[in-house]
Automatic annotation (TrEMBL):
<dbReference type="Pfam" id="PF00005">
    <property type="entry name" value="ABC_tran"/>
</dbReference>
<keyword id="KW-0547">Nucleotide-binding</keyword>
<dbReference type="GO" id="GO:0005524">
    <property type="term" value="F:ATP binding"/>
</dbReference>
<dbReference type="GO" id="GO:0005886">
    <property type="term" value="C:plasma membrane"/>
</dbReference>
<dbReference type="InterPro" id="IPR051120">
    <property type="entry name" value="ABC_AA/LPS_Transport"/>
</dbReference>
<keyword id="KW-0067">ATP-binding</keyword>
<keyword id="KW-0614">Plasmid</keyword>
<dbReference type="InterPro" id="IPR003439">
    <property type="entry name" value="ABC_transporter-like_ATP-bd"/>
</dbReference>
<keyword id="KW-0378">Hydrolase</keyword>
<dbReference type="GO" id="GO:0016887">
    <property type="term" value="F:ATP hydrolysis activity"/>
</dbReference>
<protein>
    <submittedName>
        <fullName>Branched-chain amino acid ABC transporter,ATP-binding component</fullName>
        <ecNumber>3.6.3.-</ecNumber>
    </submittedName>
</protein>
<keyword id="KW-0813">Transport</keyword>
<dbReference type="InterPro" id="IPR027417">
    <property type="entry name" value="P-loop_NTPase"/>
</dbReference>
<feature type="domain" description="ABC transporter">
    <location>
        <begin position="29"/>
        <end position="278"/>
    </location>
</feature>
<dbReference type="Pfam" id="PF12399">
    <property type="entry name" value="BCA_ABC_TP_C"/>
</dbReference>
<dbReference type="InterPro" id="IPR032823">
    <property type="entry name" value="BCA_ABC_TP_C"/>
</dbReference>
<dbReference type="InterPro" id="IPR003593">
    <property type="entry name" value="AAA+_ATPase"/>
</dbReference>
Amino acid sequence: MSGAPVASPRGYAHPADATRAASPSDTIFEARGVSLRFGGVQALTDVGFSIRKGELFSIIGPNGAGKTSMVNCISGRYRPTDGKVYFKGQDITGMTPNHRASLGIGRTFQNLALFGHMTVLDNIMVGRHHLLKNNFFTGSLYWLTGARKEELAHRREVEEIIDFLEIQHVRKATAGTLSYGLRKRVELARAIALKPDLILLDEPMAGMNLEEKEDMARYIVDLNEEFGMTVVMIEHDMGVVMDISHRVIVLEFGKKIAEGTPEEVLADPRVKRAYLGEDDEEDEAVAPPPKQEVA
């Protein structure tokens, strides 16, 4: 990514102008008219947007706005009732989550999905399974020739991720015994281990204290800049979202109501009403004073 780093109010940094000048050919993901229904419930309605390669892109909105539903449509957990989704120009609407993972889409979950009985190292190694070269037909030859070499290569990659997320001290600990903040980091590590081009982070800072949030925000920015991953993030902490995101879309009742840079989104009156809960100050200012009774 290009552009001079710009310090944000909380001390995170990102190249604020890096993605604004990107050309259409840089688009890594696109949603076209995505709608999603569950029986009589309309979760998403005609949602469309595109994400450029190298962006840190956030999806925000009130509870029940359809944020996780949209991420599930990207990852393949849900298939849109109407509309299409494209990854690197390829229609992936009908593909399974495993197929999308093999193409380079990784994710974390709002609720932790770790194997609690396994070590941190083994949990992260699970994230590498799509990168293994052996199969049913070559299995015997593989174990006689390249198995050990490949395993060492994968372990080196995993150790780099462990160093990056500063979890060396718990690498051999059982995941289920860790604090909530550390388990969140391990889940992020497992998603990174897939080496995705596009990583989906569903509320990566939920339930964390201030210090843990600041650490996670720093990891996400570094992941975007140093690892070169395109990041799509759902997050309720508006301060963090506005500090580190390149672009933001806002959903309300399953519909997109705003899209743009953090500054543009914050200035949108629809966002203030729907997400921030702000009243229209102008209407209040011109409202007539209450009548007073004459004694």
